[in-house]
Design brief:
597 residues, mainly alpha, two-stranded antiparallel ribbon, globular, binds seleno-captopril, binds zinc ion
């Protein structure tokens, strides 16, 4: 009897897989068309198709739940049924789902269309976050220009979405309940097979000492540059001075804060421009790294259908970089408004990592064509970029002059990496601590902005450049809040990518614990078939196995831990501690004097 039920279940899964492939393909095409060209027609099409697909999924769900799959002995078949039983927002009645989709659409469209006026020319009011605001934060060293731009961007991109965000939270929570979760926070956490966020807090406690050291050092260098009246000795750092509109990575202040100024340049932007890199060449270079590992090249369709530069036809579009799986096993695309900078060279590898994952698991049943957990998907490209940004590899590419491999250059290089990887961690952590608190009703609309800045101050040690109130809604000035993209995936990625990197470097014989000639930070797995095969094997799993199994297959560990990132940055941590002691810099930060609650 049970045998017959399982046989029927297997048959049903094959049919459902085919159905799901077609409906997801329709949905992704509609989403791509809307995000790549925001018109009323494309928005309506996206809403219409989303509602149709949701109804189809609700119908299938009834049939799925009619099977006794909880008793199945075939673990894989049971896992497939379990995944199909998670309806997500399609569980909502159609009218509520329509309200949810429209609320998110409104936020995403507001963000994509948001423009501000130029500080130097107030009649020029067509500046978007990409490329204009991003470039101002990369290059300006005028605190007044940065302050103006920061305030204008948060006014244009954040405040208008307050109402839609509240509607989205309400609808999302309704959907979570229909899926058997208290709030959407628990639904998001279940993607990591966690009941709560305690494990994330443990990781943060391991990293915090390292973060406090780089924070203290950067604050001193910024105080030296801008003066005590702009940057205090013991307070949080004003968020507009850190080279990024969200202060999430601080790589753009490296040029005037580096430990040893006299050493060779570590930022490759100028070298990329000098070598006539184009967006296309960036992507081809990234592809060649993957094929050097015996991983897959990009299909022809990828080059035909991707958008690798911002179109200049004046259309409204979502510029935030993204990688797309069209679930037909052939169509994979990136949309990125690329400019020729070191930062975008990293983002290019990041997005190509998503495509590589899609290619590696494309023969899995559709239900398994996802990351082992969302953090895995964000880590793939970054792991490759860790090798690419090693001095060894940059020299192979002629992007780093043949300077000495001395201790001081090594500290400069680690510092540049730390401004990206260490600095990001509290930001990656806090964004969803904020949203968990909102989903759980602990943060209500009357204290959205206050709680957001309390997290920014307590975890990141940054403060707004001007007083804030509940007329503002600064969280939505960050793409992922306006676009309903879960964010803990990046915090997880910035931890596990160093565990993956360590395992791959050992396989490539590029790293030996304790050997100063084979360090993690100068490891380059380029052309290592050993490393490539091991990475490919893990990626091919998709989400067919629990993520600890996928992690163990590559690293031998079954848990996330910060030992990878701490080992990679150990020499920098030692240097920062000595330097902050030498200068008597206060470690940590006192309460902000800026009014924001
Ligand atoms: C590049 C992407 C697209 Se998945 C991105 O959103 N990232 C990559 C790093 C963190 C996060 C961000 O920009 O906030
Ligand atoms: Zn990503």
């Amino acid at each position: 009897e049970r045998q017959a039920e399982e046989a029927a279940g297997r048959q049903y899964m094959r049919k459902l897989d085919d159905l799901t492939s077609k409906s997801k393909n329709r949905l992704v095409i509609a989403s791509w068309n809307y995000e790549s060209n925001i018109t009323t027609y494309n928005q309506e099409q996206m809403l219409q198709i989303s509602l149709e697909v949701a109804e189809e999924e609700k119908e299938s769900w009834k049939e799925t739940m009619s099977y006794l799959w909880h008793e199945f002995e075939d673990a894989d078949l049971k896992r497939m049924f379990e995944k199909y039983s998670r309806l997500g927002t399609s569980a909502l009645p159609e009218d509520l789902n329509q309200r949810l989709i429209q609320a998110v659409n409104n936020m995403q469209t507001n963000y994509a269309k948001a423009t501000i006026c130029d500080y130097k020319d107030r009649t020029k009011c067509d500046l978007h976050v990409e490329p204009e605001v991003t470039d101002i934060f990369a290059n300006s060293e005028d605190p007044e220009e940065l302050k103006y731009t920061w305030i204008e961007w948060h006014k244009a991109a954040g405040a208008p979405s307050r109402g839609n965000f509240t509607e989205y939270v309400e609808m999302d929570n309704e959907a979570a309940k229909l899926n058997g979760y208290d709030t959407m926070a628990e639904y998001w956490l279940s993607e990591y097979e966690m009941k709560n966020e305690d494990e994330f807090a443990t990781l943060w406690n391991q990293i915090k000492p390292l973060y406090q050291q780089i924070h203290a050092y950067v604050r001193r260098k910024l105080r030296e540059k801008y003066g005590e009246s702009v940057v205090s000795a013991k307070g949080p750092i004003p968020a507009h001075l850190l080279g990024n509109i969200w202060a999430q990575t601080w790589g753009n202040v490296e040029k005037f804060t580096k430990p040893y100024p006299g050493k060779p340049e570590v930022d490759i932007t100028a070298a990329l421009i000098a070598q006539n890199y184009t967006p296309l060449k960036m992507f081809q270079t990234a592809e060649e790294f993957f094929t050097s590992l015996t991983l897959s090249e990009m299909p022809e369709l990828f080059w035909e259908r991707s958008i690798l530069e911002k179109p200049n036809d004046g259309r409204d579009m979502v510029c935030h970089a993204s990688a797309w799986d069209f679930y037909d096993g052939e169509d994979f695309r990136i949309r990125q408004c690329t400019t020729i900078t070191g930062a975008f060279f990293k983002t290019t590898h990041h997005e190509m990592g998503h495509i590589q994952y899609y290619l590696q698991y494309k023969d899995q049943p559709v239900v398994y064509r996802r990351g082992a957990n969302p953090g895995f998907h964000e880590a793939v490209g970054d792991v490759i970029a860790l090798s690419v940004s090693s001095p060894k590899h940059l020299r192979v590419m002629g992007l780093l002059e043949d300077g000495a491999d001395d201790q001081e250059s090594n500290i400069n290089q680690l510092y540049k990496m730390g401004l990206d990887k260490i600095v990001f961690l509290p930001f990656g952590y806090l964004l969803d601590l904020f949203r968990y608190s909102v989903f759980r009703g602990i943060t209500t609309p009357r204290d959205y902005n206050c709680h957001f800045w309390q997290l920014r101050e307590s975890l990141q040690g940054v403060e707004p450049p001007a007083p804030r109130s509940e007329d503002d809604f600064d969280p939505a000035a960050k793409y992922h809040i306006s676009a309903d993209v879960e964010y803990m995936r990046y915090y997880v990625s910035y931890i596990i990518q160093f565990q993956f990197h360590r395992a791959l470097c050992q396989l490539a014989d590029q790293y030996t614990p304790g050997d100063s000639n084979k360090t993690l930070s100068n490891c380059d797995i380029y052309r290592s078939e050993e490393a490539g095969k091991a990475l490919g094997k893990m990626l091919q799993l998709g989400s067919s196995k629990p993520w600890p199994e996928a992690m163990e297959m590559l690293t031998g560990q079954r848990n996330m831990d910060a030992s990878g990132v701490l080992e990679y940055f150990q020499p920098l941590y030692d240097w920062l501690k000595a330097e902050n002691e030498r200068t008597g810099e206060f470690i940590g930060w006192e309460t902000s004097t800026v009014q924001y609650c």
